Task: structure prediction
Amino acid sequence: ITVGLNELQDEDKVSIFPNPIKDVLHLRLEKELIQSIELFNTKGQLVLKQRGINNKNLSLNLEAYVSGIYFIRIISNHSMTTKKVIIE
Result:
């Protein structure tokens, strides 16, 4: 459980592309560093977790995952956001 983080705001420029995806998902934060990501399926099960990223950009190969809707939580130094991702 992550406590004490604010929700990332629009001015923090969270980019997730392409969406829907077939294989590689690209994440980009404009002002902060991505510290970790968590990917959840629609049942709320954690299916992927990466920590110690410390970068503004991240590419994830998700081609091995079953097609469907997922939610990706992006955690930076001071904030976090959750976005919907569709894998085709």
